[in-house]
# Entry
Amino acid sequence: MVFVFICPANSGRLSPSSHHARRVQEPSDAVPTPPPRPPDLTPAQAAKTRATETRVIETHSQQAAPAPDAACTHAMSSKRLVAELVSPVIGPDQCGIAAPLKLSAIILANGARIPVEPISLVRCDFAEAFADWVREDLEPLAQISGGGLTKILGSDGYECRSRNRVVGAIISEHAAGDALDLRGFTLHGGRTLLIASVSEDPGFMTQVRDKSCARFTTVLGPGSDGYHQTHMHVDRKVRRNGYRVCQWKMG
Ligand SMILES: [Zn+2]
# Structure
């Protein structure tokens, strides 16, 4: 099991000032001079400095380690998915995932691994619900239409943004890692069924929609709101009185 620290913004980038700092530190022929020797500390001052350094190191190590989470433990031991546990995503603002993983494949009942491309960052409990949908709903439909699944074509998992990226709109379930967007599915023999091309196999897509709407609380597809013409969105947003959204027009 590998733990990776996620930095959601500007990961690995250098700011203009740090870039400048890097340039002025490039090797030169000049002989480096040692830094000036700090003034001697009294024993009490030295002990206080060491204590401060220790506290800082402990704090960083606590932040880097993923917290134990029952949903993640259950998902990773379920043998229903292939994923990598990662550290909590914290902010900005309301965005973040307390218990995330990077989902790379679903394992079917026969042991076949169905890649999810690209790898998606989602909540552990969402990943397990998604795996159930693939195994129990999607794969049987794919068996009827073309011998079964070989690949799931995704697009967005976690993303800190408003709904449909509309400025001022309420925050998206993607910002909680509780949603996935899918572009289509590849079946045995290389046949790919895209959400954007419902007419290719309307019977399959109608069943995909109906099964999705029974399992997820939000399903949006072509014909819903103008933002989902080329992909389907599923999430598990909890609404008052159990209200659900299922909007996807076939043809
Ligand atoms: Zn979406």
Summary: Confidence is low (pLDDT under 50) at residues 1-39, 46-63. The chain has one domain: 70-247.
